[in-house]
Design goal:
Length: 399
């Protein structure tokens, strides 16, 4: 590894593209903090797809310990923390609500939520992250689920609290308070689901899909599983991740001279712009796997039980897959990126992400004939090492 570089320290990953480049060249499987750190696209690809050799593990292994150990039943684990056969069944429950066809039906809600946020923008200048990126995905999920106001208004804060419980750099007292609020929200969502079940009135399409889900034997998933699927897999999985994509996307579009006007004039370029954003600044930088038996990756022998950290953001900058990889180029030939990983755990929310980002960007392009980064705007990454997105983005608006 590079002396002093630790990818689990927020400050080290702020702008680590050069370090990752050196690691891909000189030390593609490093060892840091007791984990194997995998940076090349070829290895990330192989490990992500080989679910027989590499199993899932806790999203942030150190933090469960930090919070005093938390042995959870499968029903309380996030989908991405489970292996087959449990994973297959749980994934089906969630995936039915998020297919490409299903999300097309959500477009009117997505457009309405996006337009309402733009209506509230001040006339000349706005912090796009606070006024749009953070609110948009949270409100879309809350609306699609039909949450009552007292739960809907806490979706954003819930995502922040989840992050605090996963971030090893958050102080213990802050993490403990966040955990208490998180558990309270989980409990209230569970009560809401029980209530909906009892009175048979399903308020929103996302919950409808979950409540209609059946296991292979025809039984319903447990109440705890439905609560986890909703709060962890949909709310947490789909909020900050998408917010970071939106912040990155606008930052990138406004950083290339003339690009805003170019895509404004030709909207067929919007989907490729979103995909290139996901590649160039991946909102989720890492994921973890555990070796289920002894295995060799490249020249490195990895013993059974080892934890591997897959650097998705690094794989997305690997020159071997993406020539001139540091360049943001919406006309790139290969947009088959790693932002959603590969294999059976590929992000189940990807269809929703795409429709939200494409719709959101089109709404902005419709509304403003011009937009520019404010002169003092600087890209400062959020503190959680796991994610990449700007904390704020001050932009100037031309109606
Ligand atoms: C830009 C936004 C997003 C990014 C970059 C992203 C990234 C990812 C990645 C990299 C994985 C794979 C993790 C692994 O292999 O261990 C994943 C899985 C997952 N994502 Fe997303 N995600 C995004 C948005 C969403 C949304 C909108 C939802 C739901 C509404 C969602 C729900 C999930 C779930 C449930 C999994 C676990 C899938 C499985 O294990 O089968 N994500 N996501």
């Amino acid at each position: 590894m590079i002396e002093g570089y630790n990818p689990m320290r927020g400050a080290d990953v702020d702008d680590d593209f050069e370090q990752l480049h050196v690691l891909r060249e000189t030390c593609p499987i490093g060892f840091v903090d007791g984990m194997y750190f995998v940076t090349r696209a070829e290895d990330v690809d192989r490990i992500g797809r080989d679910f027989k050799t590499f199993g899932q593990c806790s999203f942030a292994p150190t933090v469960d310990e930090k919070l005093g150990g938390n042995p959870r039943s499968d029903d309380l684990k996030q989908l991405g923390e489970t292996d087959r056969p449990v994973h297959t069944e749980f994934r089906r429950h969630i995936a039915s609500a998020l297919t490409n066809t299903a999300v097309q039906n959500y477009k009117p809600v997505i457009e309405r939520v996006g337009a309402a946020l733009l209506d509230a923008f001040p006339p000349d200048e706005v912090d796009f992250v606070a006024a749009f990126a953070l609110e948009f995905p949270a409100r879309v999920i809350a609306e699609l689920a039909g949450l009552p106001l007292q739960l809907a208004s806490r979706v954003r804060a819930y995502a922040t609290d989840m992050t605090s419980t996963l971030d090893p750099e958050v102080a213990d007292e802050v993490a403990t308070e966040a955990k208490a609020r998180r558990d309270q929200f989980d409990q209230e969502v569970l009560e809401f689901i029980l209530d909906v079940r009892a009175n048979g009135q399903v308020p929103g399409v996302l919950l409808h899909h979950l409540l209609e889900a059946r296991n292979a034997d025809g039984s319903s998933p447990s109440d705890a599983r439905l609560m986890t699927a909703f709060t962890k897999d949909l709310v947490f999985g789909g909020t900050d991740t998408t917010a970071h994509l939106l912040g990155n996307l606008l930052y990138q579009v406004l950083s290339v001279p003339g690009l805003y006007q170019e895509i404004r004039a030709d909207r067929s370029l919007v989907p490729a712009t979103v995909e290139e954003s996901l590649r160039h600044l991946s909102p989720v930088s890492f994921t973890h796997r555990m070796a289920l038996h002894d295995v060799k990756v490249g020249d490195t022998e990895i013993p059974r039980g080892s934890v591997l950290m897959l650097a998705l953001g690094s794989a997305n900058r690997d020159e071997a897959r993406f020539p001139d990889s540091d360049r943001f180029d919406i006309r790139r030939k290969n947009l088959n990126h790693f932002a959603f990983n590969k294999g059976i755990h590929l992000c189940v929310g990807a269809p929703l992400v795409r429709i939200e980002a494409i719709t959101g960007l089109n709404l902005i392009l419709d509304r403003y004939t011009g937009m520019a980064l404010a002169p003092d705007a600087a890209y400062k990454r959020v503190s959680f090492y796991f994610m990449r997105g700007p904390r704020s983005l001050q932009v100037r608006l031309t109606p």
